[in-house]
Amino acid sequence: MTQLLHSTSLKIFGILICVVLLVCSVFSSIVFGVMDTSWKEAVEAYASFNGTNEHIVIKEVRVPRALIAAAVGASLGIAGALLQALTKNPLADLSIFGINSGASFFIVIAASFFSVNSLSGFAWVAFAGAAVSGVFVYFLGSIGRDGMSPVKLTLAGAAMTALFSSLTHGLLTANERTLEEVLFWLSGSVAGRKLEMLAGVFPYMMTAWILALIIAGPINTFMLGEDVAKGLGQRTLLVKITTGITIILLSGSAVAVAGPIGFIGLIIPHIARFLVGIDTRWIVTYSALLGAVLLLVSDIGARFIAMPKEMPISVMTALIGAPFFVYVARKGLARS
Amino acid sequence: MKKYVPFRMNKPPVSFLLDKKTAVITITLLILTMISLVVSTGLGSMKIHPLEVIKVLVGSGAEQYTVVVQSFRLPRNVIAILVGAALAVAGAILQGVFRNPLASPDIIGITGGASVAAIIFITQFEKASIHLLPVAAFLGAATVAVLIYILAWKRGVTPLRLVLIGVGMDFAMHGLTTLFLVISHIHLTSKAKIWLTGTLYGTTWNNVSIMLLWMLVLIPLTFVFGRNVNVQQLGDEIATGVGSELQRHRVILLTISVALAGSAIAFGGNIAFVGLLAPHIARKLVGSAFGGLLPVSALIGALMVMLADLVARTAFAPMDVPVGIFTSAIGAPFFIYLLYKNQNR
């Protein structure tokens, strides 16, 4: 396996660079947009708030948006890294495994039949939806004697996505009022979310981040192959279940806040592996940082491409991510 | 009793073995389709006795029924039959060529490509004639298919790579669909949504005749080239070894499949899972030899879409629910069953 950063000190230096990148993107996300503001105003909004439009926009819109993008991006990156390790599938991602579309389907059901229409209400429904479809897809992937293969899992996810999105479209056709309420949420975005929504799911995100770092070591052993891991005395079932729970916590909270955003979880772990090699502990750390950076940058891009209209961020990530998926599919299968 | 009946002809030189069982099943399904057509045409907000429907069909029906049957119910049911058959045959070809039981136009992105083209057409060309919609959908499907083929090419095309690249393309198409839904005006969006789920509402004889023309060209081609699938299923090496021009036939078969799927999507919208389901049921009935599989798949697909549409337009009357929801509701559990079965193999 080729990797860019060989020694531990280089890897730590790399982390520092990633942190600097992250801070820069957070600041850019706060400063740039339809209403142009400056670094000075951003600081002033907190130091000496004077109620001008710029200050209100920064405090009420831009800062929540940047923080949510960073937290969601980090969660998606880690979730992707764990999902790829757990399924030994280089094509794994939340959107590819139908988790995102499952959550969307739950949201639409809640909005159509139970008149849920607050963003915080959506958050909890999305959490449940991601958990249910996550468990379901995992269960589907685990039954049978010869276990999972990349193609089977990818196809299973694709089919579940087809099912969920068809049912979602159906419900939306039957009920136009719901359409307007949920369409923007369904397209995945970090705009217009309140800081309280992030606060609601942040404990779960934090728990999952810590869990991910703890199980990264055991996952290294697990990656040697289940038989080898068992031979070395690892309780592989425990590792699998913990990883699964972590993924559901991450995807549930990310989807709850930002809607279905795909492909961050696909792209980021590949870049991380390219930088630091196969050690899961480093991959998880780098995936978190780079995931946050990529989502922030995509979000900034989404503001500018169709200005003054906002593009859904999921469209940005899908349009970058799908070609990347094709690239991985071509490259990954040439080796096997 | 012999299982096969040989059939030979010198001019033009045609010969094949007719499987008796397949023939019986095909004829049974044909009769079943005819009965369903008559019964389904009679059902709706105005109930018409099947005998009255037949009277209308032969030209001696009562005045008040003639209009309903001839201008509303019949074109809709006929297009259901054609769309179902086209989707099923397209699916059968894809599954055969990709040697993958989980392949179908809606899973590898061909339907997605047609959807994007149609959404662009509906939302961006508001004033254009709606008759051009099928052309747009077909162009979208074809573009995606060509892209998939080019991207999957690496000293030849393997079934596995085609399927995976197809799934990847489907994601890109979803992204584009969402993009155009969000940036368009809300009333165009809901119009596009209806189309996206698949509906046969408002079909006219004009649509039927265009679709029929397509089918009359494509179905014979399918039979001519379909026999090559039998060889392909033995694997690339063996197929090449016995003298099959593998890559050329693969391109031709995929083109036919795209044309069929494209026209079905153009007239019926995004009707999911029929292309996956129908060939599987057909294989259970007559085995996987392509000669018998194609007509049986076509008939089963036709029945599926017609019955799903019957439920869609009557069960929640006066609301006309998109037919795609019902095919999905049956298709998904079946897909999970397939997945489970294949994992045990």
Automatic annotation (TrEMBL), chain A:
<feature type="transmembrane region" description="Helical">
    <location>
        <begin position="122"/>
        <end position="141"/>
    </location>
</feature>
<comment type="similarity">
    <text>Belongs to the binding-protein-dependent transport system permease family. FecCD subfamily.</text>
</comment>
<dbReference type="InterPro" id="IPR000522">
    <property type="entry name" value="ABC_transptr_permease_BtuC"/>
</dbReference>
<feature type="transmembrane region" description="Helical">
    <location>
        <begin position="245"/>
        <end position="271"/>
    </location>
</feature>
<feature type="transmembrane region" description="Helical">
    <location>
        <begin position="94"/>
        <end position="116"/>
    </location>
</feature>
<feature type="transmembrane region" description="Helical">
    <location>
        <begin position="201"/>
        <end position="224"/>
    </location>
</feature>
<protein>
    <submittedName>
        <fullName>Iron ABC transporter</fullName>
    </submittedName>
</protein>
<keyword id="KW-1003">Cell membrane</keyword>
<dbReference type="InterPro" id="IPR037294">
    <property type="entry name" value="ABC_BtuC-like"/>
</dbReference>
<feature type="transmembrane region" description="Helical">
    <location>
        <begin position="313"/>
        <end position="330"/>
    </location>
</feature>
<dbReference type="GO" id="GO:0022857">
    <property type="term" value="F:transmembrane transporter activity"/>
</dbReference>
<feature type="transmembrane region" description="Helical">
    <location>
        <begin position="66"/>
        <end position="87"/>
    </location>
</feature>
<dbReference type="Pfam" id="PF01032">
    <property type="entry name" value="FecCD"/>
</dbReference>
<keyword id="KW-0813">Transport</keyword>
<feature type="transmembrane region" description="Helical">
    <location>
        <begin position="153"/>
        <end position="172"/>
    </location>
</feature>
<dbReference type="GO" id="GO:0033214">
    <property type="term" value="P:siderophore-iron import into cell"/>
</dbReference>
<keyword id="KW-1133">Transmembrane helix</keyword>
<feature type="transmembrane region" description="Helical">
    <location>
        <begin position="12"/>
        <end position="35"/>
    </location>
</feature>
<dbReference type="GO" id="GO:0005886">
    <property type="term" value="C:plasma membrane"/>
</dbReference>
<feature type="transmembrane region" description="Helical">
    <location>
        <begin position="283"/>
        <end position="306"/>
    </location>
</feature>
<keyword id="KW-0812">Transmembrane</keyword>
<keyword id="KW-0472">Membrane</keyword>
Automatic annotation (TrEMBL), chain B:
<dbReference type="InterPro" id="IPR037294">
    <property type="entry name" value="ABC_BtuC-like"/>
</dbReference>
<feature type="transmembrane region" description="Helical">
    <location>
        <begin position="107"/>
        <end position="125"/>
    </location>
</feature>
<keyword id="KW-0812">Transmembrane</keyword>
<feature type="transmembrane region" description="Helical">
    <location>
        <begin position="163"/>
        <end position="188"/>
    </location>
</feature>
<dbReference type="GO" id="GO:0033214">
    <property type="term" value="P:siderophore-iron import into cell"/>
</dbReference>
<feature type="transmembrane region" description="Helical">
    <location>
        <begin position="21"/>
        <end position="43"/>
    </location>
</feature>
<keyword id="KW-0813">Transport</keyword>
<feature type="transmembrane region" description="Helical">
    <location>
        <begin position="131"/>
        <end position="151"/>
    </location>
</feature>
<dbReference type="Pfam" id="PF01032">
    <property type="entry name" value="FecCD"/>
</dbReference>
<dbReference type="GO" id="GO:0005886">
    <property type="term" value="C:plasma membrane"/>
</dbReference>
<comment type="similarity">
    <text>Belongs to the binding-protein-dependent transport system permease family. FecCD subfamily.</text>
</comment>
<keyword id="KW-0472">Membrane</keyword>
<feature type="transmembrane region" description="Helical">
    <location>
        <begin position="289"/>
        <end position="311"/>
    </location>
</feature>
<feature type="transmembrane region" description="Helical">
    <location>
        <begin position="78"/>
        <end position="98"/>
    </location>
</feature>
<keyword id="KW-1133">Transmembrane helix</keyword>
<protein>
    <submittedName>
        <fullName>Iron ABC transporter permease</fullName>
    </submittedName>
</protein>
<keyword id="KW-1003">Cell membrane</keyword>
<feature type="transmembrane region" description="Helical">
    <location>
        <begin position="251"/>
        <end position="277"/>
    </location>
</feature>
<feature type="transmembrane region" description="Helical">
    <location>
        <begin position="323"/>
        <end position="340"/>
    </location>
</feature>
<dbReference type="InterPro" id="IPR000522">
    <property type="entry name" value="ABC_transptr_permease_BtuC"/>
</dbReference>
<dbReference type="GO" id="GO:0022857">
    <property type="term" value="F:transmembrane transporter activity"/>
</dbReference>
<feature type="transmembrane region" description="Helical">
    <location>
        <begin position="208"/>
        <end position="230"/>
    </location>
</feature>
